[in-house]
Structure of DUF1453 domain-containing protein:
Amino acid sequence: MRLIDRVATPVARSHRTLYIGAIAMFTSILVHTPHWVWGVFALLIVVGVKQTLPRRRSVRSAIALPLVLTALSLYGVASNFAHEPLALVAWALGAGALLAGSLATGAWRGVRWSASGRCLVVPGSFIPLVLFIVIFIVKFGVGIVLATDPAMGGDAGFASVVGLIYGAFSGTFLGRGVAMWRVAYEALHHEAASSPL
């Protein structure tokens, strides 16, 4: 047997063993995931798919979703990293940066006010659907890490990275809510200014 074969065979076996072990671990995680988690994922998909279609929304409902998602995100950081204040600082930085960025770039253009319907007309977009899926994957991954190694909840680096990511998602959705509120506010303000006394 050649030297290369003597070295390559054990290496190939170790890679195969690692691969099989990773599949077994991933399968175990999926099997032991509570059923309600998949229900939440399905709900996020349904809400995300609805966001791909143009629709009419009241100002209240347009602002409610970003506020709820932001509150859940902040709660997730505070509850998972209660003893790591850097996580909240990172969350605030991520939220502030993406909120400012989305407003400065006009990322949520296309929303308009319907004076006859007294509502917002929101164009369809795949961005919320993609964000919902990515948020679920990130939260699922963080849950796995914290379940398998609870000490990571006290790791400043891990907590800060997760806080920053959660904050970035929150800032993106807040930017959308603020953009919609701004369209409604400006339209209603213009209507009030132009209406006869």
Q: What stands out?
A: The chain has six helices and three strands. The helical segments are 3-32, 35-50, 59-80, 85-105, 127-148, 156-194.
